[in-house]
Structure formats: structure tokens, C-alpha cells
Design brief:
Layout: H1 8-26, E1 43-51, E2 54-58, E3 64-69, E4 81-86, E5 92-97, E6 103-107, E7 113-118, E8 122-127, H2 135-148, E9 151-156, H3 164-173, H4 176-179, E10 183-186, H5 196-202, E11 206-211, H6 217-224, H7 228-239, E12 250-253, E13 259-262, H8 276-281, H9 307-314, H10 319-331
Parallel strand pairs: 3-5, 8-9, 8-11, 9-10, 11-13
Antiparallel strand pairs: 1-2, 1-4, 2-3, 4-5, 6-7, 12-13
Helix pairs in contact: 2-10
């Protein structure tokens, strides 16, 4: 059964309701005066997991509370900051969403953006010797990170399966990324020392891991989160949903500070519809040359006096990056 789409008038009404609730919260007023006797004072919390209408919300004191979400609030996702109020049975109700600083989304079946996670600060892109890495997918993730304004990290995992010479050759294939300023890490879950720099990079950030199937995401998450089963137990208890929470996008606390979001939705992540200008702006190595082509609508393909292709010819832009740009341009 397909979900009923909201009209523009309904969307505007929901936004107006949330704006009033946010204003009441900022003014220290009860969000719903008619519910004053039945609810506690409004509080701010973070969504740690959502399963249908059920949410586990982390309070400012670090407690987890099972909350339901009002139908006119919208669609809270993992990482959202929400305004909620306690109800008589020790649970809570989410009454408004706080504005999102960042949002990772993918297009749904109707090509409308669907949020996967909110308030991220980092996108961590995993690759491995097997399956064969796709530079096209890596650049797709990098464009997404550039567009939403979060830092992108690249993690080459499973380095233990390569010989020294093969490892050096593998790392050289992706040397253009650290040259562009993308922090790159070479790791193995079987070598604790290889994870030290990555743990430091994740500390005090809110990160989500993305990558092809088979790159070792699950093993890496288990290694980075030695208490993951304990956290899952707390979340399951808070929502009352048992192990169902493991199939939902989940926010885990890192021992060194910060949070790691595990989202099943990133397995099929893709960019939505973009204009060519938006896509090329997501390639940070293109930016110094944009506007310098002879033609304003240059596709950087066969046109004469193309500044991007000239930069590729001199080695200022890696040829594979232009190839991946053209691949993405055909798909969006």
C-alpha cells in the first residue's frame, strides 16, 4: 500500500504548527496548553532509532525514553533533534522537530528526497580490495557530502588481505583523494593499531558509514563499538520492539565521544536529480576552473577550449574524476 502524499497546503499547515511549537519552547511555554495537566515540561532530545511511529529519544541527561510521534510532526529520522514531553506512563510524545543542520537523503520510488539521517558532520566512505572498488560510487558519495556540507572520510578496509606490494599499488589507485584534501585511512579489523587514527577522526563527530556491500561495514562497526550489543539492548528496551531495532537506522554512542549512525538505507544510496551545475560543483577539483570554458554550457566532453579537460591534460585533475563525472551526469 502506497503512502498518501501530502498536499502543499497540508505541508504548509504542518510547518506552521511546528514553528509555533518551536517558538513556544524557546519562550519557555508549554507546547500544548490543553495538555499541560497530562504532560511534563517540553524537553529537547535526539532520536537514536525510529521504527514506525516508535522512537527511542535520548534526553539531555543521557537517558533513553520510548516516544511516539504526533502525526502532524513530519518524519523524524535518526539524529534529529526533537521537542518532546513526558506522558503519564513514563513514556513521551514528540511534538516538534528542531531545524536540521544537515540531512542525508536519497530519492524514493517517485524520485522525491527521503531523509535517511540528520545532523551529520561526517560521511565515511568504505572501500576494500574485494569487491572491486567503484570510483564512480566513491565520487557519488563525495558529491553528496559536498552538497550537504559535511566532511568526507575515505576508509580502505580489509588491508590485511593484500601483500605489501599489492597494498601499495591499491593505495596508489586512490592517491588523488588525499591530494584533494580528503582524509584517507587504511585499516583492518584484525590490526588494532590501524584503527587508531580512524577512531580519533570519529571522536566528537556524528558520522555515517556508506559503501558497497561486502566492504566489511558490519565488522568495522562491531570493532568500533565493542558495547554494541549492550547499546542495542538498551534501545530495544526503550522502544519495546525487541531486536526489530537492528533493522532500522540506529545511532550508537562511541566510547571516545561522538556517534556512529548505521543505516540500512545507505546500501542503495544514490543521488537524486541534479542540474549539471550542481553536479560539477560537487567536484572540488573542478571548482577553480568553472566558468573558464569557452561555452557556458560546456559538458567537458568534446567541446573546444574546455578548461576542465585542459586541467586533466596537465594532471591538475585526475582523468578518472572526469570519467566519473560523465558517468554521474548520464545517470542523473
Amino acid at each position: 500500500m502506497t503512502k498518501r502524499r501530502l498536499s502543499e497546503r497540508q505541508i504548509d499547515r504542518i510547518r506552521a504548527i511546528q514553528t509555533r511549537r518551536q517558538q513556544r519552547f524557546a519562550a519557555g511555554s508549554d507546547l500544548e496548553p490543553e495538555l499541560t495537566a497530562a504532560t511534563g515540561a517540553p524537553e529537547v532530545g535526539r532520536v537514536m532509532v525510529r521504527y514506525g511511529a516508535n522512537l527511542a529519544v535520548e534526553t539531555s541527561a543521557g537517558q533513553l525514553v520510548h516516544c511516539l510521534v504526533r502525526s502532524n510532526v513530519g518524519q523524524p529520522v535518526c539524529g534529529d533533534q526533537v521537542i518532546w514531553q513526558r506522558i503519564a506512563d513514563g513514556q513521551g510524545v514528540v511534538t516538534a522537530l528542531q531545524p536540521r543542520l544537515t540531512e542525508l537523503s536519497r530519492p524514493d520510488f517517485n524520485n522525491h528526497p527521503k531523509a535517511l539521517a540528520a545532523n551529520l558532520t561526517q560521511l565515511v566512505i568504505l572501500l576494500a580490495p574485494e569487491p572491486e572498488p567503484s570510483g564512480y560510487l566513491i565520487d557519488q558519495y563525495l558529491v553528496a557530502a559536498e552538497r550537504i556540507g559535511v566532511e568526507a572520510l575515505i576508509v580502505g578496509n580489509k588491508m590485511d588481505v593484500l601483500t605489501d606490494s599489492a597494498r601499495a599499488a591499491f593505495q596508489q589507485r586512490f592517491a588523488h583523494y588525499p591530494a584533494l584534501g580528503y582524509r584517507t585511512f587504511w585499516t583492518s579489523v584484525h590490526a588494532a593499531a590501524s584503527l587508531a587514527a580512524l577512531r580519533t577522526a570519529l571522536a566528537d563527530q556524528t558520522s555515517v558509514l556508506v559503501g558497497q556491500s561486502g566492504v566489511g561495514k558490519s565488522s568495522l562497526i562491531k570493532t568500533l563499538l565493542p558495547d554494541r550489543e549492550i547499546q542495542i539492548g538498551r534501545l530495544s528496551q526503550a522502544t519495546g520492539l525487541g531486536r526489530h531495532t537492528t533493522s532500522a537506522t540506529t545511532c550508537y554512542q562511541l566510547a571516545g565521544g561522538g556517534a556512529l549512525i548505521d543505516s540500512p538505507g545507505v546500501r542503495s544510496f544514490r543521488l537524486g536529480t541534479l542540474a549539471r551545475s550542481e553536479l560539477q560543483a560537487g567536484f572540488r577539483d573542478f571548482r577553480p576552473y568553472l566558468g573558464q570554458c569557452r561555452f557556458a554550457d560546456c559538458r567537458h566532453d568534446q567541446e573546444p577550449d574546455c578548461a576542465i579537460r585542459a586541467a586533466v591534460a596537465t594532471g591538475a585533475i585526475a582523468a578518472v574524476r572526469l570519467d566519473n563525472f560523465h558517468h554521474l551526469l548520464r545517470t542523473i
